[in-house]
Amino acid sequence: MMARKKQGSEATAPRPVAAPPVFPAAQPALAASDLSDLARCLWAKTGSGSSAWLSVAQHLMDAADVAGYLFDEYVSEHHRRLMASVWDGDQAKARATFVFLAGIHDVGKVSPQFACQSVELAPFIRAQGLGVMRKTDYPERRFLPHGLVSQFAFQEAIVRGGGDAARAVHWAVLVGIHHGRYPDAGAVNVARQQYRTQEGSEQDDPRWGQARVEILRWMAKRSGFPLEAPGTALPELPIAVASAYASALVIADWLASNEDYFPLRPRPDKEDKECAIRFYPELDAGQQRKRAARGWKRAAFPAPMRLPATLEEPIADFYRHRFGWPASYRPTCAQRKAVEIASTEDPDLMIVEAPPGSGKTELAFAAAEVLMRARGLQGVFVALPTQATTNAMFERVTSWLTSILGDEPQRLGIQLAHGKNSLNESFMRLLESGQSPLEVHDDEEDLGLHASRWMGQRWRATLSPVVVGTIDQVLLAALKSRHVLVRHLGLMGKVVVIDEVHAADEYMETYLEAALTWLGMYGIPVVLLSATLPPARRRALLDAYRRGRGSSGEGAQLVEGMIGYPVISTVSSVGVRVHEIDGEAEAAKRIVPTSVGSPREIAELLDRELADGGCAVVIRNTVREAQETYDAVKAVFGREQTTLLHSRFLAAERAARDRRLLELFGKNAGRRPRRHVVVATQVIEQSLDVDFDLMLTDPAPMDLILQRIGRLHRHERADRPVGLREARCLVLVEDLFAVPWAYSTGTDHVYPRHAVLRTLGILADRGEITVREPVDYAQLTALAYSDVEAVGPAQWADAFDTALDERERSTAQSRMRASTWCLDGANLPRWQAPELEEKLQGNAATGEETKGPGVAAARAAVRDGEDQIPVLVVAIDPELGNVPVPPPLTGGAADDEELEVGEYNARGRIADICSWSISLPPWALRTRGQSVDQAVDAVAGAIWDDPITAEWACREHPFLAGELILAMYKTPGGERLTRDLCGHTFTYSTEKGMEVQGQ
Fold first, then answer.
1. DSSP state at residue 907
2. Cα 225 from chain centroid?
3. By the 8 A CB rule, do 399 and 370 touch?
4. CA-to-CA distance for 418 and 421, rounded, in angstroms?
5. Which residue(s) pair with 344 in the sheet?
6. pLDDT (0 to 100) of residue 49
7. Is 175 within 8 Å of 98 (Cβ atoms)?
8. pLDDT at residue number 962
9. Does the global pTM surpass 0.90?
10. Are 801 and 739 within 8 A, CB to CB?
């Protein structure tokens, strides 16, 4: 028994790991001329004509050199430390490795499966004795993409050089995924079999492999990477470090592939194929340095944000200086405490809970500034619930940055990243010239000359040092989709601020928690803002981030239950901490249940309440109910005294309405009307700094009711009408005698019925709720979400039980559906580089995300809310012969000028078309037995295949490529647009937005 035990222990003993390799000195003077004619004859890029190309060697030098610039001048110090963490913190080794990886990423183009794509360049290869057949003679070439050829060749080179085979896999996979696709193990095995047996393999013609090895060794010498190091082992690659390399590698390839930055060179003389290569004028080292420097300058890639050296002034003076406050303004206790915590504790995660209107935004910016300085980060990413809230936040961020620029002058990149307003003017001019930023044959897909949607818009926005975007940009970092690691790169070097974090539903929470785990693995500081969080939700967010950090320190039980208010919960190297803060005095606000049965009764109630003037807001939980209520209120108050706001207006129209609301009801409004009613959906509760004298609202979960009353008596005003000087929020209940109380039918489509009933149960117990102290926010939220403390009349018990069963079933279903495509796993923090192939499964959720249905699927994959299908609306005018024209917009002259959709740049109107965006509700478009996902696919597919827009040349423009364009017919008079689609009638007007009705 003893012997067997010893044998068993010996059998499971870990294999000794060899020492890491020693890095040789780099030889940057090496040029393509140092390669053989065989290695130099192979092409990597070709333009649309026959006069230009880039050889594999030239493209790899471009990629390697631009990678050096990325490492030195773009990625943050934090990112460099992460890359160097596997090299004992040696950033010189990390840089040499990154440059080398970029310099070999396309060595797999040295293969007949790739070379056959150019009929004009193949003869130069044949002249060197290599066989290249026609493309049709390689029927299985799609199973061997050049990225995987690069991966296999690099892996073989490490092993042949005496390196550890298992560790070689960790590093080789990085070049295999440089196109942002993450193949599964089956696809990799098929490709490996092809690599070993098909044309160009060792047994078919070893010269292909010899050319690849020559280029690999040449680039290793040029960059100073230990490709051949007998008896050594490259370090293991944790998934976070692997992602840091892989994501930046994609950018290096994109930049090197942009012909405006790195122009194609003249092709060899086609008359004498063999001599043409032998005497081809390669660039020498000096010329290549100038080419790389010129390319980097042309790219104008954003530099990291520079901050003033230290925070030397007192905290109160800092806030006044940074945000332009007058001398009489004092920061709140929470604002002061946040800076103290950020300065002394250096927290990884901060969850800030404070009342609406208490300055959480300024608090977050101040904390972010401290954390950026301490961590060596490049900037900040501010995420908000909706596109509209990002527009409002963008102005506040710009004001903050202007102050920083006054202290530290610099050129700073800032982007509004919600897909419609991040249009870069210089890039737009390049694209409108008809040029393409990417070249043909960069992949095995026969896409022809094309401009990448990622190059054109989305990736540039998220890679700027300062980004203001929707929370989708964070959630999509946890979605199995193409280029997901580039989304990680957009977050990796920044402080991430997520405002209104309570707005995420159970479905979105799955992605948010996974994203927080990834951010924890990267060591990226995160600041979460909310008026109130249920205790279980607070704990889940903390646990998700701590999981990524290794869950060290004290347990998160400290944040359970009632923990005070305002409060800042933190995760740092010392564990979890809870910082209770003295709240600021505020005016009492009453929350009163009110019996109102219809939109007409709402209008009559408002007429009585505003008899002596005043401004009121009515918050309905669905767009349809808001539109119906608007009609009723308008009939009493008139159109001039009534405003409608919801998510289903065109983006340009919605932005104009937001601006008007701020002009009328903002803090410094100079045009506040004597009598006015705003009818809105819950979009008004998020990030709009507006103030109303009276509020009416549909029932909602308690934390959201408390969020909404933040727009009630928000600002100090001495001129409120006498009857409205007391802050009242009237909760609309259709029948106070029903068991339980009856309320709007649309509410249960938006919020869990159990959470709504808990709110109404507390109101029924107390008669009304008065919020007097800041701590009331936390106590009410904790009570509403308690699983042990009963609320409401005893007669409601059966309704509560039914709603609870429904909530648990719905939550489980939402979590299960979300987890299908969520980039997560039980052992996520222990993943290593090989999981890039085994776990990420790029495009699994969305298909090809560059096309409209895929974009819709990506958004639907991370949101389970009301509106998920993003479209652009273009009007069709029957009176002008069904020509496309702009849709109607408020406040501007009628624009009936025909859109030149047959031209690539629509004669300069691409930016306008992008501003006509709107999102459609798939749940309202479902047929019987159809799921939301199926509705998304059906509607997006119908719009994508619409024959009206199918031949529009402007759809090839990068900012429109892949977008869903919904063509709608103008009605006589031009005030409305209509379209029948998928069994429904869509109607759009500037007055009411988009309406959807079944046929």
1. G
2. 34
3. no
4. 7
5. none
6. 59
7. no
8. 80
9. no
10. no
